[in-house]
Design goal:
By secondary structure, the protein is an alpha+beta fold. The protein contains six helices and five strands. The protein is globular, with a radius of gyration of 20 Å.
Length: 178
């Protein structure tokens, strides 16, 4: 009888732990919400669009203007070098062709981090390219992260998956992929 009671208690505790994790995942995605198009800061969006195009155009021209202190955080500036960009651009150019344009899709606000994530579709010469460029802007209106990844229509579902979490150094490596 004691063994059955102990087993039931153990199952109950394990069940409670799994529910907490499920609740934590939904709470984290609830803190990220889409910004209505009318409420997007046009100046900030234009700035991120221009910087995104500048970064991706490096793949076509091999000329990169380093980001300034006002444009990006020290970590992003340190990791976004012409060497890293060139290395990644070679891979992208072979697979997708030349970079053509950047199309703004949507913006999300991450309330806990007080950041805004701008999502762009990166258009390349080859039609097989279905890439996304994400530019994250912090409270000081500086770029705090630049990511390039495969396009997913649903931003929140893509964010909820644990395998999409990227270390800061990995983010900057993927920055170069743009």
């Amino acid at each position: 009888m004691k063994n059955i009671l102990l087993l039931l208690t153990l199952c109950f505790l394990i069940g409670c732990k799994s529910k907490k994790n499920a609740v934590a995942k939904t709470e984290s995605t609830a803190k990220i919400e889409r910004i209505a198009d009318a409420k997007i800061d046009e100046a900030q969006r234009d700035k991120t669009t221009a910087l995104g195009k500048q970064i991706l155009m490096t793949c076509n021209t091999s000329k990169f203007k380093p980001l300034t202190e006002n444009e990006a955080t020290p970590e992003v500036r340190k990791n976004m070098t012409i060497e890293r960009l060139t290395k990644t651009c070679l891979k992208f150019k072979l697979k997708y062709g030349d970079f053509r344009d950047l199309k703004f899709v949507e913006a999300y606000q991450n309330k806990p981090n007080k950041t805004i994530v701008y999502r762009y579709k990166a258009l390349y010469e080859k039609k097989i390219a279905n890439k996304e460029l994400r530019i994250t802007v912090n409270e000081e209106n500086q770029i705090s992260a630049v990511n390039s990844k495969d396009w997913k229509d649903d931003f929140l579902k893509a964010e909820a998956k644990p395998d999409n979490k990227v270390k800061p150094d990995s983010k900057t490596k993927s920055e170069a992929k743009k």
